[in-house]
């Protein structure tokens, strides 16, 4: 079993549309059993995500993307979670807010707390989404599991893994990370806190990401099993 927690599907104004069938073909070639999918943050094409997990419920788990600047964003998210979406996708960089501007997005996290829905949030070495911001968010919402997408990239991975180590509800997603950063995440934060993510199609390729994660996880007890699927299955209720 392999679960990939970082994939994009749907339309984009300037890029080729990614259909569920196209993604499934790539998944089958790589041996990916299930993908957690969201839309491009710029397009807000949640309809394509819903069609994907409705048509292929055994292969796709959908995250809902909403611009928190919309006055009814919390109500919209609640409707989506009632309609089959399993969590929230956040991209502060694309939607123009900082993770210290709590009043902008905390209403969304209140909804996630109510529904016990996990959050995938872009967390790179950017002023908008720096890993250091995740600590306070995790403390304010200890019941909400937060996946730090990209886990700081190459520039701030050390901060990212320490935040995950010190906060039981913060998890790390591996896409775009270097080999040594992936190993550091597993060693420092713990093998139970790391999830396979490829960032397809923006960040990586299935074969490369799988090789990287397997190489880092092989030295940990049940490491491959946990990082490739068990940790994600637990977070998304897929066990």
Spans where pLDDT lies below 50 across 5 or more residues: none
Distance between the termini: 11 Å
- Rg is 16 Å
Shape, principal axes of CA atoms: globular
CATH class: Alpha Beta
Can you tell me about this structure?
With 239 residues, the chain is of the alpha/beta class. The chain has one domain (3-235): TIM Barrel. 43% of the residues lie in helices and 15% in strands. The chain contains ten helices and eight strands. It has helices at residues 20-30, 46-55, 73-82, 92-95, 102-115, 133-140, 157-166, 179-188, 206-217, 223-235, and strands at 3-8, 34-38, 60-65, 87-90, 119-122, 146-149, 170-173, 194-195. Helix 8 (179-188) crosses helix 9. The chain is globular, with a radius of gyration of 16 Å. The mean pLDDT is 95.
Concise overview:
With 239 residues, the protein is of the alpha/beta class. The chain has helices at 20-30, 46-55, 73-82, 92-95, 102-115, 133-140, 157-166, 179-188, 206-217, 223-235; strands at 3-8, 34-38, 60-65, 87-90, 119-122, 146-149, 170-173, 194-195.
Provide the fold topology:
Blueprint lengths: L2 E6 L11 H11 L3 E5 L7 H10 L4 E6 L7 H10 L4 E4 L1 H4 L6 H14 L3 E4 L10 H8 L5 E4 L7 H10 L3 E4 L5 H10 L5 E2 L10 H12 L5 H13 L4
Parallel strand pairs: 1-2, 2-3, 3-4, 4-5, 5-6, 6-7, 7-8
Helix pairs in contact: 3-5, 7-8, 8-9, 9-10
